[in-house]
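Lecture notes, continued. The same structure-token format from the folding unit now serves as the input rather than the output. Read the line below as a description of shape only.
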């Protein structure tokens, strides 16, 4: 897998996570917690009580535990045959893009759509469709990897 291909796949996941939480990004504290846990995983840590040690194998294992399910999902959609080195490349890019998605969702949770909206403007208000109003109170959470989310990549 090329560098560009890995970035493209990671970008698809980022776009999906930003899009799925666009209308309702959740509470700011929850978004801050997601950002904090993502940053810890990139250091090879699971929580703040661990001592940070420069151990690439531990970091790899932590990233795999945190984001491996997403890598499996994106690879399952495309069915590429990749090496373990390519998987690690994708995992690294994906972890970075998930930090970016978390930052966008956190800003939106605080009401800041300005900096993260195409064109730098606030989104236009669109009346909900009848079906969207009916589905508003339906629990749509699904499980992928270790967290609750209905994760779908655009075709």
């Amino acid at each position: 897998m090329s560098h560009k291909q890995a970035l493209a796949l990671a970008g698809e996941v980022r776009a999906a996570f930003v899009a799925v939480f666009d209308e309702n990004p959740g509470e700011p504290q929850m978004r801050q917690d997601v950002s904090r846990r993502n940053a810890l995983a990139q250091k090879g840590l699971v929580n703040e009580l661990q001592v940070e040690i420069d151990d690439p194998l531990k970091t790899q294992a932590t990233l795999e535990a945190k984001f491996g399910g997403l890598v499996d999902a994106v690879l399952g959609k495309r069915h590429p045959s990749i090496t373990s080195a390519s998987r690690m490349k994708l995992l690294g890019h994906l972890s970075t893009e998930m930090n970016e998605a978390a930052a966008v969702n956190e800003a939106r949770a605080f009401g800041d759509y300005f900096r993260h909206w195409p064109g730098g403007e606030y989104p236009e208000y669109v009346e909900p469709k009848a079906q969207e109003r009916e589905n508003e109170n339906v629990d749509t959470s699904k499980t992928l990897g270790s967290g609750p989310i209905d994760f779908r990549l655009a075709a």
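Point for the exam: Residues 138-150 have pLDDT under 50 and may be disordered.
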